[in-house]
């Protein structure tokens, strides 16, 4: 696999270990499913231990191959988590915007990661099930051309007061927390695919070059900034809200 | 010894024994037997082996069992007819069991000897060939007289259709012949037992009828006989098809024809016809073979039930499932919420679980189980397992099988910490390392974590790893042979894919290799082979062969040994994780304490709870402790976990208590603050803390029994102050403290370096009604608390910088100076308080005096009484009562009259303070003193406010310092735990404390506990320390003597006081008159004639100023510090 990167491919690729954490049934696996297969299953089996999937994400300058560890959410599985977030360079801490308790749990995870995971881990806080918030001003805005990172997501959330049907966690609250802790922040819907690819792209962008390990990572640094034009492709591809930004 | 018994057993297995060694043994003498026995025959917990005897089982020959081999062959040759099995016959309360597997319940049920059934079972499972007959399933037992030297029994079992006798083909119930090998006496005894059991068994027949009627085998065979009659037509009796799971309606997974289900059913029908069914089934080699090739769909549930033993659970209590559901219907729980989340996502691709019917079943089974085992509740993966079971079983069957899974087959897998899962992962890894070292090295090198792959295999029994049909085949064997199967399959998977796995260098490839392997399990293992037979072998068959042939060496014993080996590491990993998590989740308040401190508090908190729990348990079970321990050991043999009763309370093992009651809190404080140790564990009265701990402990002498209430740790003091602290920290008003409470409490005390907030904190502690005022009573109590807190080396608290060095450099005089300083500060404090106190509202006053007259209350408690009775609604009504009962130093204690007085007895020693405070005033200040004295007049209630209190504190340098640093630093947490030398310098009681402290500090919870238990009071005779101990006890004696005399004086006073009160209106006169006398410069020695001999003792300390009581305290302190000084000299 490592060799495939060396095969006259213009962009260097590096793999990033990413772990998903969060309360049970907030949609961790569904997010991954959406990202990897552009698919959604209403009744996804709970993850036992952890599931492992990979997906590539094309950035202008490099290709990031995500090695995604999707962990079980139930409280008692928490003691298994260290096994999975070991050496992770990125983490997606997911909560359910219709369940305030899940944000609390997410905060616990963030604290755990900040203290126990590898230093410099990129953490994204993700509020999932945005489709359940009825007045969803996001619906139209995800096709904005520059929607490729945290700031974009921020823009989308403006004006949202959490008056949506099932929404119980106001965007502001979570956003404020994320800012305080220096986390990337998104609200997504795995069901509709809204913002899902953005999360992963943002993480890919946020991974410091230096933390990319292996020969693939080193290659990435040399070719920095070589392919500005790739950016256009990337952004254009995301209009569908799913994952064209990331090749399979 | 072991070898010998082993040999004997082995011999018994192979040679036909002429004499039985095993006589009936009482189960309580060798309790481990019972567990082994139950595990072997999969019997419920209620069963114990009552009788056992070597025996030979003879079964009439049938064509279907012709191929029988193994243990049978040797004897088969000798006998002309039938199958013969030599083994052991066991009798329990409700079962008659026979097994060819060496049961090893001989004299010493040790690990080595038990391995004969926990060892290789050659596919027969631990129970081997034989039977497990519920006694109620035996219809008759006849004694045969065939051979003169043999004692033979013919057992006729109940086979459901009593009128089957008429049919020619079907034997009327099956008949077993059992020859007992033993002395006539032994045989007779066995038979007596059997007779008794059979009689009892009659009661269970109804249960059996119910349970059996739900078994498919009954239907299958009834069908069979009827079919013959009605010549294969639909003319069956209107017998209802028993519930054989959702598969009945929604189809069983897999292609029935491909699985050759019909053939399997036919074979089973033959087998069951000849060997009994459900309750009366006899296990012959064919039985095990039939299981190995995969069970037919409709019989699967029933055979699972039988081989796992859940059938017997159901038999015992057939209605448990429905009753549980009914009992808890409508109730809610966390588990139920969690279950609801997963109902729609349990085997969602199976049509049955897309229907309300299937989901309803799943919900009910999981819910019912969560109620019967609330400790486990619900764990993800249970939904998948139960969903799988429900395809083949009825709800009730699945319910009982689930409890067998959780309790016996997968111990600790689904517990709240999942320690069983983690442990077995560790075990699995070590087995991989052992059996496939090259692969293991590769995994380590490429940093692939094996458990990431294998954990779901174990947790959900391969159900969502392999295609369902294959997972069920694994389950077939798993229920028969036990947990080792999971390991064998796992190892075989790795072995088969070894080559490819060696090429995989990261988790991703590793996982995908296995994923694609699982997806191709139905393909040919040797697709290119010339040999068509070989080509027909599927990958799954290959897997089974590798698992059970190549890894036949992996036995239950291997697993148990490995579990025992890795248990501690795994548990302590979990514990440190739990600790980390819970500390982090303590909330914002906790941020005021350092991480180390939090860790320390956590350890200390749970160590105390754990120790107490364990102590209580051990004390409770002192009598049958040995038996318990023995039983625990036996469980360990099977599961690798020692018995629950020994390990309970370990955080990693699951839920443990998280709340601390007051006694535990005292013990907790005793490990953290020096002042919280009782002064004299040997002498009942507590000079300062005046609440005698004596009544608590019965005989709290120095030579306490090993299991004292406080274990080996030091006895904590019991002081009003501690009680107040407890109440203050108990913010949830539950009369118990959680770790959260304790941490928040400490954050308030220690988290702030601000003297003002410390002063307010202290003030609030004594402001019972929260009205911002502390009355006379409170003032006295505050001063008393200050004394209490300072009675051990306030010196080093006030100037912590040179605390320890001071002692070692012979700084004792300085120290005593400081103590004296402190004493005088406190007396000044009292004086000033009264000086600056505000009088209460006059009307209030009137009320009080009225009350006082009416109730005949004593002088000093009036204020409080009033407040408590009339105003104070907030004060916790629960606390005063215990304090009352635990308290009184002397029966004549005056406060016995005030059941509602919140802190009844603690102020005794201070009672005289009033007079003495005044007395200590220099003559020149008589006027002021008089004013103060006026304030003392009980008829003029007064109070101080926080500003006053603050002012008074700040007016005194020593007190100021105390509030600035002394108080909070008197709690020693991680940054400055009570060091052994420091504590020994101030008081020797802390010797034991030091040990405990160190232990608690070092080892986290687990080690702390062990260490704490070991670090007892240092036994005298241990060299220097022993001598030190003696010196200290001298000091204590002195202290005790002082206390005794004080008490006498006190009693005298009380008597006087009461006497005075009886004289109605006169009552205030004498005391105040006396006060005035004293103020006029009376000698200390003349303080009060009623004091008896106390003054003698007090005189030497008189020059220190302060009140009589203070002096007494001082004396006491000094005697203690004298002792310690001597100690120090010794050390030097």
Automatic annotation (TrEMBL), chain A:
Keywords: Nucleotide-binding
Region (Disordered): 134-170
Transmembrane segments: none
Keyword Transmembrane helix (UniProt): no
Pfam families associated with the record: Ras
Biased composition (Acidic residues): 143-163
Single Gene Ontology MF annotation: GTP binding
Family matches, as InterPro entries: P-loop_NTPase, Small_GTP-bd, Small_GTPase
Superkingdom field: Eukaryota
PANTHER family referenced in this protein's UniProt entry, alphabetically: PTHR47978
Name this polypeptide is given: Ras-domain-containing protein
Organism of origin: Zopfia rhizophila CBS 207.26
Lineage: Eukaryota, Fungi, Dikarya, Ascomycota, Pezizomycotina
TrEMBL record, chain B:
Region: Disordered, residue numbers: 59-81, 226-246, 679-716, 799-819, 867-934, 1045-1132
Biased composition (Polar residues): 688-703, 1112-1122
Rab-GAP TBC domain location: 294-482
Molecular function (Gene Ontology), one example: GTPase activator activity
Pfam families on file: RabGAP-TBC
Comp. bias intervals (Basic and acidic residues): 226-243, 1045-1062, 1123-1132
PROSITE patterns: TBC_RABGAP (PS50086)
Alphabetized InterPro entries for the sequence: EF-hand-dom_pair, Rab-GAP-TBC_dom, Rab-GAP_TBC_sf, Rab_GAP_TBC_domain
Name this protein carries in UniProt: GTPase-activating protein-like protein GYP2
């Amino acid at each position: 696999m490592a060799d495939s990167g060396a095969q006259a491919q213009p962009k260097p690729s590096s793999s990033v270990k990413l772990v998903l954490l969060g309360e049970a049934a907030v949609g961790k696996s569904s997010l991954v499913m959406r990202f990897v297969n552009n698919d959604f299953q209403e009744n996804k089996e709970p993850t036992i231990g952890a599931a492992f999937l990979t997906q590539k994400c094309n950035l202008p300058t490099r290709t990031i191959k995500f090695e995604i560890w999707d962990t079980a959410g139930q409280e008692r599985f928490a003691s298994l988590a260290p096994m999975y977030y070991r050496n992770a360079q990125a983490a997606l801490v997911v909560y359910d915007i219709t369940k305030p308790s899940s944000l609390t749990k997410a905060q616990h995870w963030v604290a755990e990661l900040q203290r126990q995971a590898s230093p410099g881990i990129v953490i994204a806080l993700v509020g999932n099930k945005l489709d359940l918030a009825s007045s969803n001003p996001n619906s139209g805005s995800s096709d904005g051309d520059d929607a490729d990172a945290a700031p974009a997501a921020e823009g989308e959330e403006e004006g949202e007061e959490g008056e949506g049907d099932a929404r119980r966690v106001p965007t502001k609250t979570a956003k404020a927390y994320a800012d305080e802790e220096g986390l990337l922040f998104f609200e997504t819907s795995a069901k509709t695919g809204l913002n899902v690819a953005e999360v992963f792209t943002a993480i890919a962008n946020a991974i410091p070059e230096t933390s990319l390990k292996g020969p693939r990572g080193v290659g990435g640094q040399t070719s920095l900034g070589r392919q500005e034009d790739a950016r256009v492709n990337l952004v254009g591809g995301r209009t569908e809200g799913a994952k064209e930004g990331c090749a399979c | 010894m072991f070898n010998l018994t082993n040999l004997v057993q082995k011999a018994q297995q192979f040679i036909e024994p002429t004499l039985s060694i095993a006589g009936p043994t009482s189960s309580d003498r060798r309790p481990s037997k019972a567990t082994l026995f139950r595990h072997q025959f999969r019997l419920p917990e209620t069963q114990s082996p009552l009788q056992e005897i070597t025996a030979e089982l003879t079964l009439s020959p049938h064509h279907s069992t012709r191929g029988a081999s193994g243990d049978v062959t040797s004897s088969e040759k000798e006998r002309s007819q039938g199958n013969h099995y030599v083994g052991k016959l066991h009798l329990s309360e409700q079962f008659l069991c026979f097994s060819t597997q060496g049961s090893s319940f001989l004299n010493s049920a040790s690990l080595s000897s038990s391995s004969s059934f926990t060892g290789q079972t050659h596919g027969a499972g631990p129970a081997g060939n034989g039977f497990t007959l519920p006694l109620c399933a035996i219809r008759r037992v006849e004694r045969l007289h065939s051979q003169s030297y043999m004692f033979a029994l013919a057992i006729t079992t109940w086979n459901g259709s009593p009128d089957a006798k008429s049919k020619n083909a079907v034997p009327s119930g099956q008949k077993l012949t059992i020859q007992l090998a033993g002395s006539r006496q032994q045989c007779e005894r066995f038979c007596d037992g059997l007779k008794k059991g059979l009689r009892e068994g009659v009661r269970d027949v109804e249960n059996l009828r119910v349970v059996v009627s739900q078994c498919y085998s009954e239907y299958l065979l009834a069908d069979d006989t009827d079919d013959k009659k009605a010549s294969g037509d639909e003319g069956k009796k209107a017998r209802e098809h028993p519930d054989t799971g959702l598969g009945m309606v929604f189809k069983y997974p897999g292609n029935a024809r491909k699985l050759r289900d019909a053939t399997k059913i036919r074979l089973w029908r033959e087998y069951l016809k000849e060997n009994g069914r459900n309750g009366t089934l006899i296990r012959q080699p064919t039985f095990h073979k039939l299981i190995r090739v995969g069970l037919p769909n409709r019989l699967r549930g029933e055979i699972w039930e039988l081989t796992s033993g859940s059938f017997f659970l159901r038999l015992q209590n057939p209605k448990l499932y429905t009753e549980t559901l009914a009992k808890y219907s409508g109730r809610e729980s966390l588990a139920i919420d969690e279950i609801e989340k997963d109902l729609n996502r349990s085997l969602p691709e199976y049509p049955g679980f897309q229907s309300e019917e299937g989901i309803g079943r799943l919900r009910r089974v999981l819910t019912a189980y969560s109620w019967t085992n609330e400790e486990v509740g619900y764990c993800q993966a249970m939904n998948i397992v139960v969903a799988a079971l429900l395809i083949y079983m009825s709800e009730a069957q699945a319910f009982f099988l689930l409890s067998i899974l959780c309790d016996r087959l997968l111990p600790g897998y689904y517990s709240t910490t999942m320690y069983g899962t983690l442990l077995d992962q560790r075990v699995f890894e070590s087995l991989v390392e052992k059996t496939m070292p090259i692969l293991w090295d590769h995994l380590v090198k490429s940093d692939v974590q094996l458990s990431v792959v294998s954990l779901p295999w174990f947790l959900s029994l391969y159900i969502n790893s392999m295609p369902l049909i294959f997972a069920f085949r694994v389950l077939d064997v798993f229920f028969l042979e036990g947990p080792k199967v999971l390991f064998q399959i796992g190892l075989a998977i790795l072995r088969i894919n070894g080559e490819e796995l060696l090429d995989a260098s990261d988790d991703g490839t590793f996982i995908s290799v296995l994923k694609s392997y699982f997806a191709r399990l139905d393909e040919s293992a040797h697709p290119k082979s010339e040999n068509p037979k070989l080509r027909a072998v599927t990958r799954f068959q290959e897997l089974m062969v590798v698992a059970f042939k190549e890894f036949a060496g992996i036995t239950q014993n291997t697993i148990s040994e490995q579990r025992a080996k890795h248990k501690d590491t795994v548990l302590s990993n979990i514990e440190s994780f739990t600790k980390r998590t819970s500390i982090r989740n303590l909330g914002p308040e906790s941020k005021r304490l350092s991480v180390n401190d939090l860790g320390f508090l956590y350890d200390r908190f749970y160590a105390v709870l754990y120790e107490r729990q364990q102590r209580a348990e051990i004390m409770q079970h002192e009598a049958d402790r040995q038996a318990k321990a023995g039983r625990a050991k036996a469980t360990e043999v099977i599961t690798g976990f020692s018995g629950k009763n020994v390990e309970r309370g370990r955080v990693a093992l699951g839920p443990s208590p998280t709340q601390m009651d007051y006694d535990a809190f005292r013990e907790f404080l005793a490990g953290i603050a020096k002042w919280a140790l009782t002064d004299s564990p040997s002498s009942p009265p507590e000079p300062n803390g005046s609440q005698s701990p004596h009544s608590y402990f019965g005989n709290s002498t120095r030579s306490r029994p090993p299991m004292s209430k406080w274990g080996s740790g030091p006895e904590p003091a019991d002081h009003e102050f501690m009680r107040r602290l407890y109440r203050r920290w108990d913010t949830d008003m539950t009369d118990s403290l959680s770790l959260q409470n304790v941490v928040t409490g400490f954050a308030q005390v220690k988290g702030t370096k601000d003297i003002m907030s410390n002063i307010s904190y202290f003030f609030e502690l004594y402001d019972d009604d929260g009205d911002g005022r502390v009355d006379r009573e409170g003032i006295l109590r505050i001063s008393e608390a200050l004394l209490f807190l300072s009675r051990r080396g306030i010196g080093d608290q006030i100037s912590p910088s040179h605390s320890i060095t001071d002692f070692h450099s012979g700084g004792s005089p300085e120290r005593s100076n400081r103590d004296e300083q402190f004493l005088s500060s406190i007396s000044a404090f009292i004086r000033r308080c009264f000086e600056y106190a505000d009088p209460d509202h006059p009307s209030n006053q009137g009320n009080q005096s009225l009350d006082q007259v009416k109730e005949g209350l004593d002088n000093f408690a009036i204020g409080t009484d009033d407040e408590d009775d009339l105003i104070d609604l907030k004060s916790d009504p629960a606390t005063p009562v215990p304090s009352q009962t635990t308290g009184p130093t002397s029966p004549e204690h005056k406060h016995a009259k005030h059941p509602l007085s919140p802190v009844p007895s603690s102020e005794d020693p201070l009672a005289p303070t009033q007079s003495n405070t005044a007395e200590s005033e220099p003559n020149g200040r008589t006027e002021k003193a008089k004013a103060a004295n006026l304030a003392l007049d009980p008829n003029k209630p007064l109070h101080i406010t926080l500003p006053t209190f603050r002012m008074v504190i700040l007016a005194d340098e020593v007190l100021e310092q105390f509030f600035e640093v002394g108080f909070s630093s008197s709690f020693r947490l991680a940054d400055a735990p009570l060091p052994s030398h420091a504590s020994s310098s101030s008081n020797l009681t802390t010797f034991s404390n030091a040990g405990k402290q160190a232990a608690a500090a070092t080892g986290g919870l687990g080690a702390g506990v062990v260490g704490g238990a070991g670090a007892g009071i240092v036994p005298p005779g241990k060299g220097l320390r022993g001598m030190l101990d003696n010196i200290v006890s001298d000091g204590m004696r002195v202290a005790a003597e002082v206390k005794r005399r004080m008490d006498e004086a006190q009693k005298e006073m009380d008597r006087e006081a009461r006497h005075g009160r009886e004289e109605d209106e006169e009552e205030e006169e004498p005391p105040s008159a006396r006060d005035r006398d004293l103020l006029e410069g009376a000698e200390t020695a003349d303080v009060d004639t009623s004091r008896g001999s106390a003054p003698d003792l007090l005189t030497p300390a008189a020059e220190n100023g302060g009140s009589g009581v203070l002096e007494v305290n001082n004396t006491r302190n000094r005697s203690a510090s004298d002792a310690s000084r001597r100690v120090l000299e010794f050390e030097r």
